Amino acid sequence: MARMRLQDMLEFISLGFKSDRFKTLMSSLGIIIGVLAIVVMLSVGEGLYSGVSSQFSTLDLDVIHVIPGSARFGGPDGEPGSRNAAEPAKFTDKDTKVLENVVGVKNVAPQTGASVVISFRNTNSSGSLTGVDPDKEQDLKEKVAQGRWLSGSDYRSIVIGNGISQETFRMKVTPGNKIRLYYRDQPMDFTVVGVLEEEEESGFGGGMGDSADNAMYVTHKAMEELLDEENYYYQTFQVTVSDPDQVDYIIERIINDLRRYHKDEAYDATTARDMLSTLMSTLSMIKYALAGIGAISLLVGGIGIANVMMLTVKERIREIGTMLALGATVEDIRRQYLLEAGVLGMVSSLIGIILGVGTSLLIGSLAGLPSSITPESIVLGVLFGVLTTTIAGYYPANKAAKLDPIEALRAE
């Protein structure tokens, strides 16, 4: 018995689609929306992932941040236990010397920060003030756009970010101007000696660059007087290493060496790489969770396809009976209905991908997110679309193939 040719099957399927365009559109709509959702979710998730990654890639991987307290689920040695609840370490100049003596350390920059109120020409605003050792902040020194950087002998001098200079007040704050800072209602006057260059905005339209532009820097001597506390401690050390490949070893040495002075106190040492690794892991989970939401839409579309094809089988009972009577085999009928489902899935998937790419670009443009259309999202969209429709069409195809030819021809 002759088998139906593939060309005949495709022609038969094409005639079926054309004869009832509305039903074909309704049956494919669920798949189109599902594939569109997968492409959009994966593309936006990948764009978010790559955008954040590019922002953090500008951070120095050769800098270790030594902080009081614990940044991990454990004590200074990274192990869980009672150390996590220990009092945060109080860092002083002796800790600076300990860090400078660690082999592989190139520079140690102690910093102490506070949020302050800024007053300029009877207008108040807020900003972030950091006390620094001017000789240890070479990177900041190179970012001065106007005036000069702080010197070790400066007392009531201040260097401000570009945002404070250009945008915070109605009048621009330039080198030579005087501003007043308040910390817990404690006032202190400073002379602006320098303005830092404008920080590049992040790919998300703000955030990192904004906070850096609103920063201000004074010497530790000035910071100590403004805080007016009984004891002055450093809040963090930025430790620059000579070889970034030795960071993990140096962190271990730092933690061990500081233990001599802070045996019962909590402290930790982290790098931008640690933060980046944690963040990227979280974003990766978010990306695939978004794709999962799209897959649910596709599943709903597959159920719709199965229902429509079951109705198609009922509508074509006489047609199937005629084909069987003319020599079509049970396998031919099954193959034809599976092929019809697969073709419908392929066409629907391609339409969904085109709409998904357009929607992803539109979302990226409106939300300020980098939109990343990856081959992975397109392949997954097509694969899921075709597989869903083929699986959804399996039961209707089997039902059509098992029809009795004589009973089918008698059907009204």
TrEMBL record:
It is found in: Cell membrane. GO terms for cellular component: plasma membrane. The chain crosses the membrane at residues 25-45, 288-313, 343-366, 378-397. Residues 24-254 form the MacB-like periplasmic core domain. Keywords: Cell membrane, Membrane, Transmembrane, Transmembrane helix. Residues 293-405 form the ABC3 transporter permease C-terminal domain. It is a multi-pass membrane protein. The keyword Cell cycle does not apply. The keyword Ubl conjugation does not apply. GO terms for molecular function: transmembrane transporter activity. Belongs to the ABC-4 integral membrane protein family. This is Efflux ABC transporter, permease protein. It comes from Methanothrix soehngenii (strain ATCC 5969 / DSM 3671 / JCM 10134 / NBRC 103675 / OCM 69 / GP-6).
